[in-house]
Amino acid sequence: MHQTKATQQFKLKYTVLTLSLMMTSLSYAQTQSSADDAVALAPIYVQSVGDTTNIDEALKEQKATDQISSVVHADAIGQLPDDNAAEALQRIPGVSTERDQGEGRFVTVRGLGADLNSVSINGTLVPAPESDRRGVALDVLPSGLIQSLSVVKTLTPDMDANALGGSVQIQSMSAFDHEGLFYTGNVEGSYDDKREKYSPKLSGAISNRFSIGDGEDNFGVAAAVSYQKRKFGSDNVETGGSWDGDALEETSMRQYDITRERLGVGLNMDYRPTENSQYYLRTLFSRFKDNEVRNAVKTEFSDALLPSETGAAEITRALKAREETQEIQSYVLGTKHEFDVWTIEGQVGYSEASEKNPKGIAAANYVGEFDNVGYNSRSKPVIFGGSDIYDASQYTLDKIEQESSLAKDKEKNIKFDLTRHFSLANYPAELKFGAKLSQREKTNNTDVWVYKDFDSSNGLSGTGHYDLAKFGPVISTGAVYNYLSGLNADDYLDMEESTINDFKTNEDIRSAYFMQTIDFDKLRLIAGLRYEDTHFKTQGYEFKDEQISTTKFKNNYDHWLPGVLVRYELSDDAVLRAGWTNTVVRPTFAQSSPGIYIDTSDLEAEFGNPNLKPLEAQNFDFGVERYFGRASVISFNAFYKDIKNFIYNTDIAGTGEWADYSEAITYKNGEKAKLYGVELAYSQKFDQLPAPWNGLLIGLNTTFSRSEANISGTKDGVYSQRKINLPNQSKLVGNALLGWENEKFGFKVSANYKSSYLYELSAIDTPEKDIYSDEQLFVDFSSHFNIRPNLQLRFDVQNITNEHYYTYMGRQQLNAQYEEYGPTFKLSLNFHNF
Q1: At the N or C end, where does the chain have fewer CB atoms within 10 A?
Q2: In terms of residue numbers, what domain contains 398?
Q3: Is the residue at 215 inside a domain?
Q4: pLDDT tens digit string along 123-163?
Q5: Where would one find the signal peptide in this protein (predicted)?
C-alpha cells in the first residue's frame, strides 16, 4: 500500500518519458552542429540546469577530464534547496543518498553504499567521524563551503584505488578561481512545517589577489564561512521487524525534536611566483552538532496480536536526550613546478574527524502493565487502549542509562608525482609516475552507566505533539538529571558495554604507480599500473563470562591494480569513453572490529573479523555523450562490476570452535558479487524557441541497475546458500527537472526518485525476514527573482509532497519503520560582486 498507484504511474511514465525524450533530442541533435557551442560532453549534473552559464562552466571542466565523471560548481549548488554536499550530489546520474531524519547523509554511487566509496577534500582523504564506518556522512559539510563537487566513476592509476562505486572529490575555493576581488553572501530563514520552527542560515565567501615582490597579483587569499541552526522534527512508528507471521510482537511510537547546528570555515592561500610554479595551502573546518530529544512509547504484547485484536502489554515510555558533535578538519600543503618537459608535484595532507557524545541520556524508561491494548494497521502500527495508558501515574521509573563516547579518525599522507612530456612516433605523450604514503589511526572509547531500582512516576507530564496517534505524557529531561544528581556514577559503570566497543586501529598504505598517456589524433589512450601495500593492526577487548582480556590482530596484504582508459572524439560535439579499471576497498571498522563477546552459559557470541579480505573489483565502463547546443547534452553510460570478497553479516554457530553454540554472529567474505547497469542523462535549454518559450529548461537522468551476490551460512547444523541483491542498491534511480527562467525571474520543480532496495539481511535461513527500504519520491520547488544584477531573492520548498520514509520486513505491509517529516519552506537573499 505504500507503493501508491500515483508513484507507480510516475515510475512508468518517468521511464518512458526519459527514453522518448532522449530519442527525440538525439534526432534533433543531428541538426545542431555549432562547434562554438560544443563546450563539454561528460555526463551532465542536472541540478545545474537552472543556470545556463553554470552548466557550461561545469561541462567545460568535465570535458577536460579523462575519466567518466560529473562536476558541479558552487553557484549551481545553490540553484536547488540543498543544505549539504550529500543532497547536492543526489541529483547526478547513478548517485542516491541515505537519509537521516529526512536529510541526505551518506552517498550511494551506482548501487554501492558509502563505505564502498571514497571522499576527498582538496586531494586528501576525508576520514569518517563515526566509530564503525569508512563512509563519510556528507551532511557534515555545508554546501556554502564548496567551490566544486565531482564524482569520478572510472579511476586512473594516479588516484587512490579505494572506491568501488566512485570517488567523491570536493574542492574549496581559491582566489585564482576569480579575477580580482570576489565576494558573495547569503542570508536565509527556513520554516519547518512539522514542528512549526524557524531556523537561520548565513554563509559568505571572499577572495582577492595581492602583489608580492616583483610579481603582479601572484598571491591569493580566499575565505568562506557557513552557519546554520536548523530546528525540526519527525514522527515515527517502528517494529524493527518484530513480526510472527502476520501477528505483531512489539512496536514503538517515537517523537523526535531535533536541533542541528552546522558551522564551516575555510581559509585558502595560493602563491604563484612564476607562471610555471605555485604553492598552496588548503584548510577546512566543519562542525556538525546534533541535539536530539526523543520520546518513545514502546509496547511489548504478552502474545503476538493481529490488527484490531487487544491483549495485555507492557508499555515503556522512554527518553533519549543527547548532543552529539561531529567535526572534520583538513589541511593540505602542496606545490607544483614545470621545468621544460618535466612537471613535479608534491603534497602533504592531514585530516581528522571526530564524533563526541558527552554524558547524555541514552535511555530513561518508565514502565507500566496494561490490558486491552492493540493496534489497527500493519504498515503504521500505532497503539490504542484505555485512558489508563495515557495516565502518567500508571508508570514507574525503571532504569536510566547514560552513555559517553569519543571516536577519532586521523589520516596523514605525503605524495609526489612526476610527469615527463615527450613525443612517441610524432604523437604527443606523457609518462607519469609517483608514490604515496598514508597513515591512518582510528580509535573509539565508550562508557556506559546503568542506574536501576527507582520507585517513582515523577518526571512524566504534559503530552506529546505526535501526529500519527494519541501519544500521552512525555518525560522531562531535567527530572531525569535530578534523579542522578546525588548518585556516584562510578558505582553504576557497566563494564561490558564500556569495554566491548573500545578499540585502536592503525592502517598504513604504501602505494606507487606509473601511467602512460598517448594522443593519437582524436584518440587518447591511458594505460598504467598501481601498487598498494596495506599494513593493518588493531587491538581491543574480549568480554568472556564477565572476564575482560586484551585482543590484538594483524592483517597485511598487497594489490597490483592495472587500468586502461580510452577517450575518443567522435566529432566536434561527441565523445566516447571506455575503461577497464581495478579497485580495492578495505572492510569497515565494524566489520574488522577486534571486540569479542562470549557467553558460555547461553552459548552465544558476537565478534568482528579482523582477518577479512578487502573487496576487490574489476570495473568495465563504456560511455558516449553528445552536445547539441548551449547547456544541452545527451549521454549514455554502461557499467559492469565483478566484485570479489563481498562482506556480509552471518551466524557461524555450529561450525568450528562455535560448533556447540546457538548463536555466533560475525562477518565473513562471500565469493563473488556483480553489479551492472546503464545511466542515461538528457538536459536541454530551449534557446532556439521564440519568447517566452526560450526560457524553458528540461533535465532528466535515470540509472537502471541490477546486482547479484551469493551468501552462505550454517543454521542448526545445516549449511545453506542463497542469492541476494547488494544492500542499498536500487534498481531505478532518477531525477526530473522542469524550469523556466529569464533575466529577472526563474523557477524549477525537481523530482528525485529511488526504488526499493535491500536494507538489512536476516539469518541465512530466513530470507522472509530481510528488511527492505521502500521507494521514495521527493519533489522540491525553487525560484528566484533578480532584484538587481548582484542581488537575488529566493523562495524554495523542500519535500512539497510530504514524502515519508518506510522500511518493511519481507512483505510491504509488514512495518519495520515508518517516519514522516513534512515540508520545509525557505526564503533567502543572495548578493555578490560578479
Answers
A1: N
A2: 20-832
A3: yes
A4: 899 899 999 999 888 776 666 667 778 889 999 999 999 99
A5: 1-29
